[in-house]
Amino acid sequence: MSAKLASRPMFSVASANRMLPLVRMIVSDIVELFRDVRDREERLSGLRKGDARNIQRGDLYDEEVEQIRLDLEKDVERLQGFVDELLELGVEFKDPVIGLIDFPSMMDGQEVYLCWKLGEPTITHWHTRDAGFSGRQELKLTDTEAN
Q1: Mean pLDDT to the nearest integer, 116-144
Q2: Which one of 13, 17, 46, 48 is CB 3.0 to 4.6 Å from 144, fit for a cystine?
Q3: Quick one: which H or E segment has residue 34?
Q4: Taking the domains of the chain in order of start, what are their residue ranges?
Q5: Which residues contact 36 (CB under 8 A, 6 or more apart)?
Q6: Residue 132 — left, alpha, or beta (φ > 0 → left; ψ -120 to 50 → alpha)?
Q7: For residue 69, which phi and psi values (nearest 5 degrees)?
Q8: CA-to-CA distance for 95 and 121, rounded, in angstroms?
Q9: Inter-residue contact 101 to 118 (CB < 8 Å)
Q10: Which tens digits make up the pLDDT trace of 68-109?
């Protein structure tokens, strides 16, 4: 196990839930910005396909396409900044479409993830490290009490 993994925080259900207001804001920003970036990337790709068909545009068109590309680069950097912010909190970001994150935790002596996605009011699920989202299980009252 690397030093980085060994030093990362472990969350109880209670501590993860206390962090949710901040995490929810960051994840909301990621989901919204990701959707916008994806849409603009698709439009830019369409514009470039038009260029590939040797359609004569003009300097203004070329400048506009270049500005779109530069704006996209800045927003991709912003997205990475949001993800980095989550990592600094000890939270692992998993999916920008549904806003899925994992909080490292311990359960019955085993490292697991407390799993949360945007729209859920609290932490209500967990999964083993290798199971992923498809292996999510509902927390039982004893799980939340033990943490």
Answers
A1: 88
A2: 13
A3: helix 13-52
A4: 9-146
A5: 75
A6: left
A7: -65, -45
A8: 18
A9: no
A10: 889 999 999 999 999 999 999 999 999 999 999 999 999 999
Q: How open is the CA angle 12-33-18, to the nearest 5 degrees?
A: 20
Cβ(23)–Cβ(86) under 8 Å? yes
Distance CA 94, CA 83 (A): 10
Dig out the tokens for 45 from the structure: 């790709």
Contact assessment for residue 18 and residue 116, using Cβ atoms and an 8 Å cutoff:
no
Query: How many angstroms separate the CA atoms of 81 and 39, rounded?
Result: 20
86 neighbors 92 (Cβ within 8 angstroms): yes
| Cβ count within 10 A of residue 20 | 17
Task: Give SS3 for 54.
Answer: coil
Tokens 């806003």 appear where?
99
* pLDDT the model gives residue 49: 66
CA atoms within 13 A on the CB side of 74: 6
Angle of helix 59-89 relative to helix 13-52, nearest 10 degrees? 160
